[in-house]
Design goal:
35% helix, 439 residues, 15 helices, 2 domains, globular, Peroxisomal Thiolase, Chain A, domain 1, alpha+beta, 19% strand
């Protein structure tokens, strides 16, 4: 069902890799029109204060890596554009990575591997996404018509081409909708969550209950100022200041969510707008450093990255990616689910997260798919997404993997816990996971 790639924690030559600091913007809910920031705008908004508080010049970084999925045409290779706008210098190498929802985690993992091998000492790794800027596309028939018109060389030819125009050519295709549909299995991401709800017998009420709890946890974390150091305000050109994740719905309840109609499989589907992640804009950066850089610059690490894993599976059940990517990490380190103090599983859909928990607790699944002797067990939901997740925060796809790693590191420190795993499903049938230990 899957293949995987992983780090080699047992390699005696591997250098320690530390997460030193990080920052993100507030995640801003898309509201039917382009938001105030492009991906690079967002990256710069949180990158500047992050770099300003470091006791080192920007020129000492070895490289900049940024995850981004929906790159806008004015910002090709947004990592390089962001690096230049952040004052990293003309000589700073910078490149963009894309693995759909895992892009923000991929930037960290790439940096992790550079530093672990001794090829770099200090890397700025991030994710940036402005889903509200996803393009509207012409239909193929309209593209063909424009091509025919442009190729016409005579007045009569242009008239013939003009006569072929149809008003339907002006109706655009929503680029985001097409991007969130897997081209191999012809299912959108919500339909894959519906399939998991069916396979693991997850009811609408259970999905809504999970979603309501996620919203309430996020709201409580905001009230407790949990994100005070993590979030940097974003300043729009019109003077508006964004200071918090504005997709939170503190009044969420099972009763309120039950009023919403199924979004992907009406009328009997279990996945709704209320128990799914939100379409959102946001960016996040983390600074990774070697032991040498930590000592030389007098840095204070938050956490050490111990291991990482990428797995792949059938795109139709892509939501199980966290199970397939996290389990090998547990096996390599001789850890059980309960040995992990905190879990961050990106909440693409409530039903998808619940399906992962049920898969781990299903003996047949664990034996046939994970090749375990018995079920991995029940993951305690009290240590899962303790401050809420993407159902309330939102899921800017190129950023989320970066956010959950940063927040996991901060939560380990805040709650005085030892180790945690950040993991996510990835559109197209993949999954990524990272194991962190508090310093």
């Amino acid at each position: 069902m899957s293949n995987s790639t992983h780090s080699a924690p047992q390699d005696s030559k591997a250098q320690p890799v530390y997460l030193v600091d990080g920052a993100r913007t507030p995640f801003i809910k898309a509201r039917g029109r382009p938001g105030p920031f492009t991906p690079v705008d967002l990256a710069v908004q949180c990158g500047r204060p992050l770099l300003l508080r470091q006791p080192l010049p920007r020129s000492v970084f070895d490289m900049v890596i940024l995850g981004c999925v929906n790159v806008v045409s004015e910002e090709m290779n947004p990592a390089r554009v962001a690096a230049l706008r952040l004052g990293m210098g003309d000589g700073m190498p910078a490149f963009t990575v894309q693995i759909n929802c895992g892009s923000g985690m991929q930037s960290i993992d790439t940096a992790f591997r550079y530093i672990r091998s001794g090829d770099a000492d200090l890397i700025l790794a991030g994710g940036a996404e402005a889903l509200s800027h996803a393009p509207l596309l012409f239909r193929q028939q309209a593209v063909n018509w424009f091509a025919e018109l442009a190729a016409a060389r005579s007045a009569s030819g242009r008239l013939r081409a003009l006569a072929g125009f149809r008003p339907s050519y002006l109706k655009p295709v929503i680029g985001l909708e097409r991007g969130l549909t897997d081209p191999v299995v012809a299912m959108n991401m919500g339909q894959t969550a519906e399939q998991l709800a069916h396979l693991f017998n997850i009811s609408r009420e259970q999905a809504d209950a999970y979603a309501a709890r996620s919203q309430q946890r996020l709201h409580q974390a905001q009230q407790d100022e949990v994100f005070e150091r993590e979030i940097e305000p974003a300043f729009a050109a019109d003077g508006k200041v964004y200071t918090y994740d504005d997709g939170v719905r503190p009044d969420s309840s099972v009763e309120r969510l039950a009023r919403l109609k199924p979004a992907f499989e009406p009328p009997f589907g279990r996945v709704t707008a209320g128990n799914s992640s939100q379409i959102t804009d946001g960016a996040c950066w983390v600074i990774l450093a070697s032991e040498k850089a930590v000592e030389h610059h007098g840095l204070q690490p938050i956490a050490r990255i111990l291991d990482s894993e990428w797995a792949a599976l059938d795109p139709a059940v892509m939501g199980l990616g966290p199970v397939l990517s996290s389990t090998p990490i547990l096996q390599r380190h001789a850890l059980a689910l309960g040995d992990i103090d905190l879990w961050e599983i990106n909440e693409a859909f409530a039903a998808q997260v619940l399906a992962c928990l049920r898969a781990w607790n299903d003996r047949d699944f664990c034996q046939s798919i994970l090749k375990l002797e018995q079920a991995a067990g029940q993951l305690d939901e009290d240590i899962l997404n303790v401050h809420g997740g993407a159902i309330g925060v939102g899921h800017p796809v190129g950023t989320s993997g970066n956010r959950i790693v940063l927040h996991l590191a901060n939560a380990l420190r805040l709650l005085n816990k030892k180790r945690g795993i950040a993991t996510e499903c990835i559109g197209g049938g993949q999954g990524g996971a990272m194991l962190l230990e508090r310093v």
